[in-house]
Amino acid sequence: MVRIRNLYFGYSKRVPLFQDLSLTLERGRIYGLLGKNGAGKSTLLKNIVGLAFPVAGSCEVLGQPAARRLPSVLADLFFLPEEVDVPTVTAARFVEHTAGFYPKFDHEALARYLSEFEVPAHAVLSALSFGQQKKFVIAFALAANTSLLVMDEPTNGLDIPSKVQFRKIVASALSDERCVIISTHQVRDLESLIDTVLVLHGQRIVLNADLGELGERLRFGSVPEADDTALYAERTALGAQVIRPNHGGVPERVDLELLFNALVSEAPALAHYLTQNQPAHESVL
Amino acid sequence: MDFKNNEAIYLQIAGYVSELILRGKWPPDFKIPSVRELAADLQVNPNTVMRTYELLQSQEVLYNKRGIGFFVAPAAAEQVLAQRRERFLTQELPDVFATMRLLGIGLPEVQRRYEEFNQTQPISAS
């Protein structure tokens, strides 16, 4: 679906954002892209959708270089930017003018999503509140039914009930044919929705792993005192939050915040453990 | 549904499905919600629910009719009970033992309280 090899990119030559970055994304998965502020999450997404071009290396979508922006590729991908910009037309008019670019557009699904989000179909889009505009574009993005759906911080600006609706709709919209990438720094919003976690750090993808597999390999918990079995430890007032190897124990729920902190602090023990005996699923460390 | 403890989400969902079967809400041969329906309802990834259903199928709690969906197995309740017993004995009981040791509580005291419990708390349907 998406194949990035040895990507170099920077808006200025002196400040490279990505160096030798490689990443493969498959159909049938919802990827959560995590990274610190300024790590380049949005820029990576822009490379994938053909809005930024590699300085070196390759970025292919559906077997074609993303930067070529072939109509056949653009018809099968949708990019939802963090800040949406809607024209001064009604929702119905917008759909009439725009849905035609997406051959698999599902009008019934759109009606269902808009009613779940409680967005009026006859209102002028630019007159809606920011949250309502965003929900309209999310509904449109999902209804476009493209093989690749890229969403940059989609839950920003959504109220609590809308976040719930968002998770329900995305969960119901995934199919074996679709690949969904969601970038976020609000891990808690999405931790049960994503199945694969991507961590962007230090100009590269440092983790691309299935959450189920991580839960079989790692244990997360609080202990009175971290000992040398810990792959990573974070001191708290009452002891430590630790990540330990899970040797055939009960599969655990991955604590994404702790895992993220461990990866961006470059805990060598964790990195070493994750790279050895790597399961079939690709992980670049 | 709230996912709070450390157990993988697919196992927590399996526990929730098992509970419905034990309580008779999902009787034998009942067609359970599709992967997509349950995923949307619980706001979780469909692959997670698929994993739950595959696990329960391997434990002979559910069966799959190709192209139709998942159904509750005729002997599902017995299977669930067997799983729950195994889980209590291998996972929950060691935690209880650890706490007993930490607090210096011996088996005789536990036995006495268990007998008391049986006398004061009648067996309920659930």
Protein described:
Chain A: Pfam families: ABC_tran (PF00005). Chain A: InterPro entries: AAA+_ATPase, ABC_transporter-like_ATP-bd, ABC_Transporter_VariousFunc, P-loop_NTPase. The complex is a heterodimer of chains A (285) and B (126). Chain A is of the alpha/beta class. Chain A has 2 domains: 2-202, P-loop containing nucleotide triphosphate hydrolases (Rossmann fold, 3-Layer(aba) Sandwich), CATH 3.40.50; 209-275, no CATH class. Chain A is 31% helix and 27% strand. Chain A is built from 10 helices and 13 strands. Chain A has helices at residues 41-49, 71-74, 91-98, 107-117, 130-143, 160-173, 187-190, 211-217, 256-264, 268-275, and strands spanning 2-9, 18-25, 29-35, 56-61, 64-65, 77-80, 148-152, 179-183, 196-201, 204-210, 218-223, 232-236, 239-245. In chain A, the strands form 3 sheets. A 6-stranded mixed beta sheet of chain A has the order 6-7-8-3-9-10, with helices on both faces. In chain A, β4 and β5 form a beta hairpin. Chain A is globular. Chain B is mainly alpha-helical. Chain B has 2 domains: 9-76, Orthogonal Bundle (Arc Repressor Mutant, subunit A); 77-120. Helix content of chain B is 61%, strand content 6%. Chain B has helices spanning 9-22, 35-42, 46-58, 76-103, 107-120, and strands at 62-65, 69-72. In chain B, a hairpin with a 3-residue loop joins β1 and β2 (69-72). The longest helix of chain B is centred in the C-terminal third of the chain and has 28 residues, at 76-103. Chain B is elongated. The mean pLDDT of chain B is 90. Classes of the chains: A alpha/beta (285), B mainly alpha (126). Chain A binds chain B through residues 28-30, 164, 167-169, 171-172, 174, 192-195, 212, 215, 219-221, 250-253, and chain B through 3, 5-12, 36-37, 39-48, 51, 91.
